[in-house]
């Protein structure tokens, strides 16, 4: 059945306290019978038993279990063999105290793939009935006496019908009566199975053993079949055998009999009066000569036999034949796919553990919630660094790219828009627009309204519109919400009662540049989180340069003399100047434009000087080419593509928005070093505290883990069990604290204006926080579990047995 060859095992190998606990052990064990490992304490019995039962590993030697040969200790191979073929009985029972008798046993049946309730009931009932334990099926293991617990442990070992039962001092904690009962059961089992029993009690070995292997200092010193006739002292401490005592008094009358027995000579007489009154016996004892009084009633521990005590001998041994095979209908099925402990069970167990936690444990759970609250705070702070609104840093177009190159030429300037990603060259800066306010005492009738960067209306879509509409004609314009809000907040506007977007629309606006004045209409407010104004391109050029744009009036004029303008040329309104052609040169932004023709018009409001838009842009090129770090600014449809295109063309290109964001973040971060330190400390502290809390909860559960592992529950299953528990605890404590804090922060964020500068809660940050919490808890929770499970079941057991 089991063959051991040349097993060697050391503790503390190559250290001063080295113990050669198994010294060249070779053994062949049969498939039935009771083999006893006998030896003094420390001789290596437990170690040998654990090794042959797959709970521990050796440093050298081979073990053959049935057909399987196990050279190097492999926990998964052993898990399988242990599951099916080995039943364990320990000195301290090792039951799972939070489970009932029935559950303790059915667990091991689940482990070998038996889930059929009828099959489970048949086996459990047969065994429990055999042991007189059938009425305790639903009792929690923790509510049983020692002898009862050991019966349940035996039932657990037997239920799966293993080939081998190993039992390590199973009666070590029991009184003599229970010892005898338990040993009788074990003896009965050994009729059909191999039972390997460890004991240091010679009389038990000799009375029950079929074969006795004596160990000393890790070596087998004798190995013989047991032929001794053997008797067993089964006397109970409290039992009284009258025939072994001296009868000193016997009084008999018609109404009563009185007998006095003693186990020793009485030096002084004892005086007792017995009185019967109202069917009650009063015993009046003169206590000077007795130490203690004890009444023997129906249910007392003390039993009185009217005979001599006799040692039990083998012939009188009452062994009930035990045949589990007769009730087994369903054999072991494929166990690999099954999880012994279902998620539902783990949840139930975890919940009970939480509910029944000690006061300290509950303090920890509250601590989890508080830490999670801090994490929510830290994540909100971190998030405020990352998710910054455009409006907190961007004061110009987000499509703006500053472009620069050595030897930047006019042709380069013109060629810049060649790529699709670049929309247009921005040859216009900010423009001032005045509002015509109602006349109010002491107030000017025009008030400066806007002075902002301009962007083309082409960049807007109707999706951006917050109020009003997009421009439809040349002289209509729209502004960003930020610009409007700023205006509405100013005292002068409030003073005259302009307090809504609608009232802004009702105002008249005008823009003046040099001799040029346009009347403008504000028709809409857009929301692009950038303080820009949006108007027709040509209008913007015209206002910026203070001259008319030829393209705006092309259809409304007639050429009178000279030619149409080309390059650095312009047209002049007929009659506005004397003989302009050839003599008139107008500098626009330091570039000279020469009059080449005159025009007439029937339309009103046509500016006196017209220049082509593109030619004006060139003036901008002149202006900025040398004096600025960037040669020119372009507006891009797609900033990223434009950047890489410009880069490929040898330009140094910087996205204005990216740069502003980086500057702003740097500034925020240098201001927020304290915050960042706080975040780091909270995250590290929470990881560390979870690690220690789970570790200490694990220490408290090493017993349970050791039992699971000893019974053959796979490491994966134990991991899953702890994972479930960690997730449950996290969900009920951390998540609760996190949710509560997040909700509070959210409410504050809604109520307090600039709160998001410090702490910002967004859906994404909330989800990220939840993930971080679970990650921290699960990782720091499972590390100690993983560390523990790397040990052999015996090592885990010895960790528990202090
Ligand atoms: P027995 O069961 O016969 O009392 P054990 O097999 O438990 O003996 O122990 C044999 C020897 O090995 C003892 O001296 C014991 O102190 C030592 N020992 C047992 N387990 C360990 C361990 N995990 N680490 C170090 N020494 C151990
Ligand atoms: Mg031992």
Automatic annotation (TrEMBL):
InterPro entries: AAA+_ATPase, ABC3_permease_C, ABC_transporter-like_ATP-bd, ABC_transporter-like_CS, MacB-like_ATP-bd, P-loop_NTPase
Residues spanning the membrane: 363-386, 673-693, 722-746, 766-789
Gene Ontology CC annotations of this record: membrane protein complex; plasma membrane
Domain ABC transporter: 2-242
UniProt keywords, alphabetically: ATP-binding, Cell membrane, Membrane, Nucleotide-binding, Transmembrane, Transmembrane helix, Transport
Coiled-coil features, chain-numbered ranges: none
Subcellular location per the Swiss-Prot or TrEMBL entry: Cell inner membrane
Gene3D superfamilies reported for this sequence: P-loop containing nucleotide triphosphate hydrolases
GO MF annotations, alphabetized: ATP binding; ATP hydrolysis activity; transmembrane transporter activity
Location (main, coarse): membrane
Membrane topology: Multi-pass membrane protein
Family: Belongs to the ABC transporter superfamily. Macrolide exporter (TC 3.A.1.122) family.
Protein name: ABC transporter ATP-binding protein/permease
Lineage: Bacteria, Bacillati, Mycoplasmatota, Mollicutes, Candidatus Izemoplasmatales
